Amino acid sequence: QLPLALLLSMLTSYIVWLATANRMSMAWQISYGLTAKEFMVYCQPIINASSGNCDGIELLLRWHNARQGWIPPDVFIPLAERQNLIAPLTRFVITEMVAHLPVMPRCKSFHVAINVAASHFRDRAILDDLQTLWWPANPVPQLVVELTERDALPVVDQRVISHLHKVGVQLAIDDFGTGHSSLSYLKTLQPDVLKIDKMFTAAIGTDAINATVTDMVISLAQRLNISLVAEGVETEEQANYLRERGVDRLQGYFYARPMPLGDFPAWMDRHLAH
Ligand code: C2E
Ligand code: CA
Ligand code: CA
Ligand code: CA
């Protein structure tokens, strides 16, 4: 009896140890990866639905780990959030963007969207980072902060929201309609933009219930005068559907896959030539 229980408890603690060790090593690898330049910033064009012009980009992190190869953001971002490593990653994204500002379109109608995890948003950390990294670069493009929330949205400090609005940063709620992102955020966050999650875009023409949600989100945003971006647009049918209903901007493989930030100017030239 006793040896078995002992054995079991030893086994359990070994498994817990293994899991922790693995998490720790992942956290360590993220920090190491930042110094070893394993991270890259990609961007995906965002298309104006009525003009067809590219009027913005969303910045997306990529990680090529020396040992494990490509590690998707859906794996390392949640981990980074739990290990308090999200701030250095966001800083890296902002720094890379600043480095590429000289080759970006120089007009106010062009916007750059960065993903900011709710955990980095709770306090003033994001404001300080923008203060030291973004504004000194005299950026022309409009900055949009896409608020992503994996766990329940934080009690966001209203002062952070009003400060962002005051300095002209637009606030977008990402993945609207999924998970924890609820209707009450419309009131507390007063977003300028809602991003329709790709799950709802994918539903167009196939899934009646989700397509109904898509329609409802569209009319909700229109009544509240909030600009709409649909993500995950993969087909012309989806693009037409969304455009006909007045969605302002479209983003997805149908227009362009995410690309290295440095490739964007050439893509833009080709896009303009069409
Ligand atoms: P997200 O912010 O919702 O980003 C959109 C995701 O959809 C991206 O995945 C993009 O590559 C993908 N996507 C774009 N167009 C299409 C399409 O037509 N079809 C399909 N199936 N997918 C499409 P990605 O780059 O793997 O990023 C996943 C998530 O990781 C992001 O979701 C975002 O929440 C997070 N993430 C990425 N970069 C960052 C970052 O720098 N900071 C933070 N905090 N989160 C990030
Ligand atoms: Ca996003
Ligand atoms: Ca999204
Ligand atoms: Ca997402």
TrEMBL record:
Q: What is its EC number?
A: 3.1.4.52
Q: What membrane topology term does the record carry?
A: Multi-pass membrane protein
Q: Which GO terms describe its cellular component?
A: plasma membrane
Q: Which UniProt keywords apply?
A: c-di-GMP, Cell membrane, Hydrolase, Membrane, Transmembrane, Transmembrane helix
Q: What is its main location?
A: membrane
User: Which reaction does this enzyme catalyse, per its entry?
Assistant: 3',3'-c-di-GMP + H2O = 5'-phosphoguanylyl(3'->5')guanosine + H(+)
Does this entry carry the keyword Transmembrane? yes
Domain EAL span(s) in chain numbering: 23-272
Enzyme class, top EC level, equals hydrolase
Q: Which domain of life is it from?
A: Bacteria
Spell out the subcellular localization from the entry.
Cell membrane
Give GO terms: molecular function aspect only. cyclic-guanylate-specific phosphodiesterase activity
Its protein name is: cyclic-guanylate-specific phosphodiesterase
Query: What's the source species for this entry?
Result: Duffyella gerundensis
Q: What is the lineage of its organism?
A: Bacteria, Pseudomonadati, Pseudomonadota, Gammaproteobacteria, Enterobacterales
Primary gene name: adrB
Q: Which section of the whole protein is represented?
A: 244 to 517 of 520
